[in-house]
Amino acid sequence: METLIIIPITMHNFSFSAPVSWLFSRNADSVKGIFGFELNIDLIKKYQSFIIELNWFIELKEFGIIVKNIKKHNRKAKILFGGLFASLKYKEIMAKFDVDYHIRGDNELPMHLYLNGEKPEGIPNMTGRNFANDISYRFEESEFGSLSFDLDWFPSYGRFLSLGEEYYEDTRYNHLYHLPMIITAKGGCENLKQAHQGCVDCMGAKSEVLQDIYNRPPVTMSRESLIATIRNAERKFDSISLYIMPNTPCDISDQYFDLYANIEIDTDLSLEGIKKIAFAFRESLTIVPIHIQKAGNQKTNLDYHELIKSQDHHHRFLFFVTEDENKSLQIPAENRLYTEDVFPDWAKWDYYQNYENAYVFSSIFYHKVKEDVKSFPL
Ligand code: SF4
Hints:
The protein has 15 helices and 14 strands. It is of the alpha/beta class. The structure holds iron/sulfur cluster.
């Protein structure tokens, strides 16, 4: 089924949804991806099937505008919506917007069936206006290694990425997070017994909510799956983002990947453990936490300066550290990332749980983005 996939553009270079780079790869010939602002009446009339991303609540306002526009010019079109925020609030969204379908829980198999013309009523996990199928498809660890990565169907993304490099003055943020992104766990975080202060704001820690969404506990990659998944990305891409979740066995020092990797470590690794990931890649930029996943938000025992000394021309380390903390840590400016820059208050769980908050903030964001788009032509 020919389908137009629409990503409401947030113009915020940290906001995308990782599954976008594998969810459509098996159906890349029958889908086309665009940013929200690229949608026009010709495209609306050309397609009968639309998928709109609603992964981040800041997309909500634009999501509503896109839905309205599609149904105004193509009454019979079917709209499926999905993403993390969509999963949290799908009932409210169904009630407020003229959308047709949502896949609850894991998307991989249901999306494939949907794009191959299977009737939505017969697809596991699918919800429609007058039916709600059981969440009977659950992603399994063995599936990680068979994910394939493809963004050929979404050429605007690559153009956006390179334009972004000119847009952000601080070059430390260039390519910091980008597609394809491999996250080493799916459906939550396994680290909850050792939750740290940062976990309070993280969706990964909301185990009950996530269990409800996915109908299963979190799934974390084995070492074999991690290697297989990176190899799959390597077949198609020259550069990846890699997010190492707690409990991932990630000593991959016996491997060499011909890739540039932006790595974020979100787990308690030794200095040697960090190097065993970072130096497995041709080039890497690795973000290392200052706080470990232990109660009380303790600092790591890592010798940050030793890690900095181990850098070479192709492998660099950045540290999440606040300005205050850095008074004692003395991490050089070129190795520092301020946590405030990447985790503002509005990105916190308690804030966007409230639908009204989410909608109001997304409206403010949308108007700012509209201005940005003018100086950001694709
Ligand atoms: S350890 Fe990281 S991913 Fe897990 S709940 Fe805490 S912040 Fe989230």
